[in-house]
Amino acid sequence: MTNRRRLTFSLATLMLLVVIVAQGISQYVMMRELAAARAEVEEIRRKYGHIRVEDEQKVYIASITENENVGTAYRLRIPPGCHYMLNLADTTFPANGYLEDPRPTKTLSMNTWKKGADVVLSYMIYNDGKKQKVRVWTETATLFDYHLKNWVDSVGPSEGSSLEAIPQKAFSPNETIRLMSWKNPETRRGVILWMEPLAAWEARRSRK
Predict the structure, then answer these.
(1) I need a surface site. Which of 8, 122, 146, 175 has the fewest CB within 10 A?
(2) At 88, which helix (H) or strand (E)?
(3) pLDDT computed for residue 46 by the predictor
(4) Positive or negative torsion for Cα 16, 18, 20, 22
(5) Residue 96 burial (CB < 10 Å; 0-12/13-18/19+)?
(6) Is residue 160 within 8 Å of residue 180, measured between CB atoms?
(7) What is the mean pLDDT of residues 38-48?
(8) Residue 176: its pLDDT value, please?
(9) Cα–Cα distance measured from residue 98 to residue 108, given in angstroms and rounded to the nearest whole number
(10) What percent of the chain has a predicted confidence (pLDDT) above 90?
(11) Helix (H, G, I), strand (E, B) or coil at 164
């Protein structure tokens, strides 16, 4: 009788251990699959410029690494009440490479963003076979299609930088946001693209 009880107890204990081990393995597999799924979602967000809004009053910009078109693209999330001027400067850079206060060659008032916007802004610097050009556009409109007249190509590679916004970057609505700069390092001629709050734009004009 005692042996039978021991056998019954041992079988019950063994079955319980099997259930516990099986649950542990299942939990481990599920956690791995969940982690892989989260990583995949984050990769998709990174590729397509998903923005996670943490402060409704801030401007958010995220790089789009999987751009369907040529050029560099950003997703912009502009809160209501922000009036930006989009500037493009055809300019000469100083010897140190950074132009502190560029003067716009072309300016657009982004009135359509004042009520808030979620927009993809793209730019491209290219040669169409005859002209060196800068094109800036959104999904719905071309904003700049600028011809760099009398452009001289450099013997070596051009130099440039663009806003680092992976996975995203937040800005105060009062900040000026420099999106890109690009130049011929030999002649130091190049272009700058930036967003500027209307108040800053008007203040700079009044200083002229």
Answers:
(1) 8
(2) strand 84-92
(3) 54
(4) negative
(5) exposed
(6) yes
(7) 53
(8) 96
(9) 23
(10) 60
(11) coil
Tell me if residue 95 falls in helix, strand or coil.
coil
Q: Is 126 helix (H, G, I), strand (E, B) or coil?
A: strand
Q: From the CB of residue 59, how many other CB atoms can be counted at a distance below 10 Å?
A: 23
> What 3-state class would DSSP assign to 137?
strand
| Res. 205 pLDDT band, cuts 50 70 90 | confident
Element (H, E) at 60: strand 59-64
Q: Name the pLDDT band for 69 (thresholds 50, 70, 90).
A: low
pLDDT of residue 35: 60
d(CA 132, CA 186): 16
Provide the 3-class DSSP secondary structure of residue 48: helix
CA 208 to CA 192: how far, in whole Å?
20
Whether residue 74 contacts residue 65, with contact meaning beta carbons closer than 8 Å, is answered with no
* Inter-residue contact 80 to 114 (CB < 8 Å): yes
More confident residue, 76 or 19: 76
Beta carbons within 10 angstroms of residue 181's beta carbon: 22
Q: Are 86 and 177 in contact (CB under 8 A)?
A: no
